[in-house]
Specification:
With about 450 residues, this protein is of the alpha/beta class. It is built from eleven helices and 15 strands. It folds into two domains: about 160 residues, Alpha-Beta Complex (Aspartate Aminotransferase, domain 1), CATH 3.90.1150.10; about 260 residues, Aspartate Aminotransferase, domain 2. The protein binds pyridoxal-5'-phosphate (PLP).
């Protein structure tokens, strides 16, 4: 068993056994989004060992395994559940476990009108459910609004809302009709070249002042999909005013507000839902990733009024399977008993301070941003022009892997850090040390 504080060691990437697996996967699997030739053997807490004995500090998986790799309580819960029942057609039948998980999920989102929960297996599926429910509730509203830089999934419905990188949409036309994208509140590189707060949040106000008058009749819009912090798009934290203005706009025009918490939710930002930082709440809340600690679980938590209400209008097979339910229940319990949301806020404050110290010694870091343990550094060719330094970001990322730190890119020039919420100060210090060394090495390259 890999000790959760194991030493980073060996670091020949990929080793001889790993290289063989990489070749086999490359031969057999479709092209996806590979970042590094890490071939996993086992993982525990924040540590991951590959098949050649390389041991890494994993600052990527907390996005999903937020309770840490193979948290013992989650493993115990799913093992017990596997011995009880793995699968009943949960959309067709009933179980106390499903009722309990739905109740716990509904309680995560403040509501005056009551909530209904749709269980599924991914973030994409949670967003698809919101898309369908919003259309079902308002059949004459055919349009949807989403934001540039957004990521909402990759099936054709969700992909039609995704607009983070052109390659995600290239050749997939036609997307579903009438999804309108507008710029997000991305203040570090404002799409309107304005400065907050003197801009008076023009990026939010323009929707009503121009788009609704010239392009998008608001009474034809079923839903607006919004990430409370853009994830794949670059860990972009909008001013809370932006979220509150568009939330209020949706309420006034009868547009369903879909809060996509798939990446930012489940405690990572130091609040259970990231939208809580903005003092708002959605009509729909999409959850997945960290909800299952690594087991595929998704959930759409919607205002009860959006429930389909008609048998057969929407359903699935694997929502509410035994392992998913046990994993979600155990994850919520561990988050509470280990106070992981509070811990994310505390460790995040320590981590961002350390990243800012690095920024003060490395000119290439233009921006340090994020909330809690959802953090990123953005590399620029110049702090004045803020031009993306994608090459530098990629060199730093590779160097981090060579020194034993797993990280992922996001946006066009950022590295994101999403350690499990059980991370401690010592592990953050090790990550900072490796990042520092990697930047020095990448600069010299
Ligand atoms: C904000 C957001 N929404 C939706 C998705 C899609 O989730 P999944 O990959 O589980 O389908 C992602 C995945 O990265 C995401 O970050």
């Amino acid at each position: 068993m890999l000790h959760e504080k194991a030493e980073i060691k060996n670091l020949k990437l990929p080793g001889p056994i790993g290289a063989g697996v990489v070749a086999r996967e490359t031969a057999m699997m479709t092209t996806g989004t590979k970042t590094a030739p890490i071939v996993v053997k086992q993982a525990s807490g924040l540590m991951l060992e590959d098949v050649d004995g390389n041991v890494f500090l994993d600052f990527t998986s907390g996005m999903v395994a937020a309770t840490g790799h193979s948290h013992p309580k989650v493993v115990e819960a799913i093992t017990e559940q596997a011995n009880r029942w793995l699968f009943i057609n949960s959309p067709d039948f009933y179980s106390p476990l499903q009722a309990e998980v739905a109740e716990k999920l509904a309680a995560l989102v403040p509501s005056l009108t009551g909530k209904k929960v749709f269980l599924c297996s991914s973030g994409t599926e949670a967003n698809e459910a919101a898309l369908k429910a919003a259309h079902w509730a308002a059949p004459t509203r055919k349009r949807v609004i989403a934001f540039l830089g957004a990521f909402h999934g990759r099936t054709m419905g969700a992909n039609s809302m995704t607009a983070s990188k052109a390659v995600q949409r290239a050749r997939f036309t036609p997307n579903i009709a009438d999804v309108h994208h507008v710029p997000y509140a991305s203040c570090y590189r404002c799409p309107y070249k304005m400065t907050y707060p003197s801009c008076d949040v023009w990026c939010a106000r323009i929707i009503e002042e121009l788009y609704f008058k010239q392009l998008i009749p608001p009474d034809e819009v079923a839903a607006m999909f919004v990430e409370p912090i853009q994830g794949e798009g670059g860990y972009i934290v909008p001013p809370s005013e932006f979220i509150r203005i568009i939330r209020d706009m949706c309420a006034r025009h009868g547009i369903a507000y879909v809060d996509d918490e798939v990446q930012a939710g489940m405690g990572k930002t130091g609040k259970m839902l990231a939208i809580e930082h903005h003092g708002a709440a959605g009509n729909f809340t999409s959850l997945a990733k960290a909800l299952g600690s690594g087991v595929a679980v998704g959930a759409q938590i919607m205002d009860a009024g959006y429930d389909f209400g008609v048998q057969g209008a929407h359903s699935n097979t694997y929502g509410g399977n035994g392992i998913a339910l046990a994993a979600a229940k155990a994850t919520l319990e561990v988050m509470e008993s280990e106070r992981l949301v509070e811990r994310a806020a505390e460790m995040g404050a320590y981590f961002i301070g350390k990243l800012q110290e690095l920024q003060s010694v490395h000119d290439g870091i233009g921006d340090v941003r994020g909330k809690g343990l959802m953090l990123a550094v953005d590399f620029v060719t110049s702090r004045v022009t803020r031009e993306h330094d994608t090459e530098m970001r990629d060199r730093v990322t590779s160097a981090c892997y060579r020194h034993g730190l797993m990280v992922l890119p996001c946006g066009f020039s950022a590295i994101r850090f999403t350690p499990a919420l059980v991370v401690d100060r010592e592990q953050i210090d090790r990550a900072i040390d490796i990042l520092d060394r990697s930047i020095r090495e990448a600069k010299g390259a």
